[in-house]
């Protein structure tokens, strides 16, 4: 399991692992939400040496960004609605714990509860099998 709380500050190797792992997890989150291919992008901004930077999933209706900006509060995932992928302001900010990345189904449920975006992937698979 990845240690999301281990600082990326002045640690290029940790920052590289943070961004690589985060991008992978966000793609898993998109699959769990059953977001259609092409309806979102995953991008990362490594920023300067003193901070983690951020990794973002930007969908047509939701903006999810995480970094180590909320470690003191235990939060590190920003979730908000948006109106397309050119909307960088979006709706109200909601924060959840960075460690929710270790439980993608729970994170997907939080995204659905906050934004109404995404389908339960298990239900979608059951419907396709029926």
Explain this structure:
The protein is α+β, with helices and mostly antiparallel strands and 130 residues long. The protein has one domain. The protein has three helices and five strands, in the order αβββββαα. The protein has helices at residues 12-32, 104-115, 121-129, and strands at 40-45, 54-59, 62-67, 75-81, 94-97. The protein has a five-stranded antiparallel β-sheet with strand order 1-2-3-4-5. It comes from Mesorhizobium shangrilense.
Task: Set out the fold topology.
Elements: H1 12-32, E1 40-45, E2 54-59, E3 62-67, E4 75-81, E5 94-97, H2 104-115, H3 121-129
Antiparallel strand pairs: 1-2, 2-3, 3-4, 4-5
Helix pairs in contact: 1-2
Summary of the model, kept short:
With 130 residues, the protein is of the alpha+beta class.
Essential attributes:
globular, alpha+beta, disordered C terminus, 130 residues, DUF1801 domain-containing protein, five-stranded antiparallel β-sheet
Strand order of the largest sheet: 1-2-3-4-5
Shape: globular
- Taken as a percent bin, the fraction of beta residues is 15-25%
Sheet with the most strands, sense and barrel status: 5 strands, antiparallel
Distance between the termini: 35 Å
- Total count of domains: 1
Radius of gyration: 15 Å
């Amino acid at each position: 399991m990845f240690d999301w709380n281990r600082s990326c500050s002045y640690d290029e190797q940790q920052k590289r692992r943070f961004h690589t792992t985060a991008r992978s997890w966000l793609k898993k989150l998109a699959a769990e939400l059953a977001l259609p291919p092409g309806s979102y992008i995953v991008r990362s901004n490594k920023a300067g040496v003193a901070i983690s930077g951020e990794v973002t999933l930007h969908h047509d209706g939701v903006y999810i960004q995480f970094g180590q900006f909320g470690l003191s509060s235990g939060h590190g995932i920003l979730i908000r609605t948006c109106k397309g992928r050119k909307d960088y302001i979006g709706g109200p900010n909601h924060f959840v714990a960075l460690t929710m990345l270790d439980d993608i189904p729970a994170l997907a449920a939080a995204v659905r509860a906050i934004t109404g975006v995404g389908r339960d992937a298990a239900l979608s698979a059951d419907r396709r099998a029926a």
